[in-house]
Amino acid sequence: MEYVRNRTTIPVPVVLDSFDTTWLGPGRLSRINTPENLRLRGRTEPYRRWLIVMPALPGKPVSEWEGPKLGNAPKEQLQNLQDGLADWVNQLRALTPPDPQRVSGFLGGGVQSFRINDSFTPVGPFRNPAEFHAQIFCKAYPDYPEPGDERLKRLIAERPHKDYKICFTHGDILPFNILADDELRLTGLIDWECAGWMPEYWEKAASLRSAWIRAEPWSKIIRDGFPEYEDDMILERRIQLWFQP
Question: Cβ distance 32 to 208 under 8 Å?
């Protein structure tokens, strides 16, 4: 968060402090930290949970935006949202990665992504996009779960050899993480736990994961704001036919 706040104009909260909150109670962590789960995930230490203390930003999550529902919002307000998101993502994409090939979390370790798994278990890091795309959560099959057309088969065959740019990625740009005023002018971006250095299309893929790819007008805002990477989104839709994090 501090890295982004100091290098872009994206409104990001100031980090005041952080605390280990594992003591608050077992909850979900107790289910994740069973010996069997830890063994399957190759961990010797249990997961811990932290609380970040930060001042509130103005505005409210777009998911709670008052006034007309998002689907009935005036065109001008939807354009404010779309243009603001495009500006933010372009600023993130302009940041120089520490390694032009490595797919990783922000500090170079494993990737955490709700697009990959709901348990938020880190995966990787990966030496390059080809190694990343060879993982099960990025696999698209030409004839499963139904026969694919020739374009799909070509895209599947080309992906291991495709030259992807590595970009800084928020990884969870969805309405509940975007703050805006009553005119849908953006005022803040929160929840950076999925941030990392990812293949250039990943921001769009993460913002249209699971049911969000069918949720209008959100899906249209993302597609119109980021018209690139339609080939990768064809593969994403194929992956989502069988793989649901």
Answer: no
The residues with which 19 forms a beta bridge, in sequence order, are 51
- pLDDT for 178 equals 96
CA geometry: angle 5, 102, 165, nearest 5 deg: 75
- Phi, psi angles (nearest 5°) of residue 115: -70, -25
Q: How far apart are CA 194 and CA 114, in angstroms?
A: 8
* Stretches in the chain below the pLDDT threshold 70: 21-33, 37-38, 40-48, 65-68, 119
Neighbours of 63 (CB within 10 A): 12
Residues in the chain: 245
Number of neighbouring beta carbons within 10 Å of residue 143 = 9
Q: Where are the domains of the chain?
A: 57-240
In order of 51, 55, 65, 82, the CA distances from 17 in angstroms are 8, 10, 29, 32
pLDDT at residue 118 in the model: 78
Tokens describing residue 168:
């800084």
Crossing angle of helices 150-158 and 230-240, in 10° steps, is 100
The CATH code belonging to domain 57-240 is 3.90.1200
**Paired tokens of 146:** 């139904």
Only one residue has tokens 């694919």, namely 148
A 10 A CB-CB count for 61 gives 16
SS3 state of residue 241: coil
